[in-house]
Design brief:
With 473 residues, the chain is of the alpha/beta class. 31% of the residues lie in helices and 25% in strands. The structure holds flavin-adenine dinucleotide and nicotinamide-adenine-dinucleotide (NAD).
Length: 473
Amino acid sequence: MSNDYDVIVIGAGPAGYVAAIRCAQLGLQTAVVDDFVFKDGEPALGGTCLNVGCIPSKALLDSSEQYHKVTEHLAAHGITARGVELDVEQMIARKDKVVKELTAGVRQLFKVNKIEWIHGHGRLVGARDIEVTSADGEPERYRAGSVVLAPGSRSIELSAAPLDGDRIINSDAALDMTAVPPRLGIIGAGVIGLEMGSVWSRIGSEVVLLEAQDELLGPVDRQLVRTAQKAFKEQGLDIRLGCRVTGTEVGQAVSIRYEDKKGAHQLVVDTLIVAVGRRPNTDDLCSGEVDLLLDERGFINVDEHCRTNLPDVYAVGDVVRGPMLAHKGQEEGVMVAERIAGKAGHVNYETIPWVIYTDPEIAWVGRTEAQLKAAGVPYNVGTFPFAATGRARAMDHSTGLVKLLAHAETDRLLGAHIVGPQASELIAEAVVTMEFAGSAEDLARTIHAHPTLSEAVREAALAVSKRALHKAN
Ligand code: FAD
Ligand code: NAD
């Protein structure tokens, strides 16, 4: 078999595997180089997202939510559940099964699209030459018409809390704990900290999060954060802000030293998760002869079409600027594939939704009030609480609100911010409206089924022009 391809993609996470599928759909001979090995020793496609990211974390969030519902919420419905037990090993086994099914699905998609999967570590060694080192250490050379770099990212480590793989762990290992730690510490109250903290707190851990910033979730709308923060507190998540971890000692437990405005403190936990962000995988991506331009933090420099400084070499996903989100990487993968095939692919970076899968869920798209104020853009706000919708009440899930921001003169929807039940799904309506350059009135004039949670989106749209029907304006 020839080692020449139209396109070679390095990395089979959501950015890379989607780029490869789109390339193949467009008739390009495509190969994907990926070095990921699942914990059972089997090479697996899907990258961080499918193996140790989005999917396993959502599987555990779902299991822990089921348990929490049974133990805490069924009584209100008149249901008595006795002798409820949690088998954590089974919970992890279910999560692994979901992961395996999905990664096998990507493998199947590669087969039907005739995409070659080359397992090994890939390095760019020439303009369009790639050297792949397989598990047995044998390097082999390949040549591509175009190269797509999608090597993703990995957890940032902290010198004050070095990982030992047992008591101090990163998010990969936090998805594989087979017992509930009675006391769980988490450094970083970002997206991973809050999602992992929710999982283990729902099934019995006492969770303390130590966050360096003085504000929780800095870039998120403040009204959403206040609502969520109150709910997290009620759930028992102990979030301590403005903390600087200065050291850790590991014995039978982990002793953490940290400082805040009030002075120096010590916290003892059974397990400590370090979740302080992720860094791009660019350390061993090119040989010395290849002059790929990186920024000071190791991200690959790209233009708006994900072109690097090297001709015919593109980079997509977590390894380039922008949010580290699977769907952002996938869109970049599609764009790059289409541009390689001579088409006009593009990504609208203004309409990338964010979701944090806590309870309540937090989701947003577009601008916040703070950003609009800073940019001097005149805007109107419409808000609507879930507590005023019949469906949320019937579901006994009425914490939260929808908040829409529309341009004061044109009424164009500029941002949507939702905290509450199924915010992850509801946000899509705002994304579509914004993609179509729609207005708050467009949403307000659209019939929404009753009773649904989406009525809160329509009512918030009505509230933009002070005519919400089910609340005082
Ligand atoms: P990755 O998914 O990281 O894949 C890169 C692949 O390339 C990996 O398989 C890696 O082994 C391989 N690779 C790296 N270097 C080389 C090389 N030189 N040669 C060969 N192979 C190489 N995002 C969301 O949108 N929603 C979520 O709910 C969500 N939850 C998350 C939960 C957790 C716990 C974590 C850690 C992340 C989560 N993310 C989520 C982020 C999401 O996983 C990433 O944004 C996404 O996986 C990035 O995709 P990617 O294709 O750029 O890289
Ligand atoms: P993050 O950037 O979301 O949060 C890291 C947090 O750690 C921040 O609040 C930061 O202020 C804090 N921090 C940094 N250094 C610290 C220190 N020394 N001490 C205490 N706190 C410190 O990063 P993450 O939670 O590690 O997640 C990484 C990325 O993965 C996210 O940015 C996101 O893009 C992606 N992700 C997305 C989802 C989702 O979409 N639902 C879920 C998980 C992860």
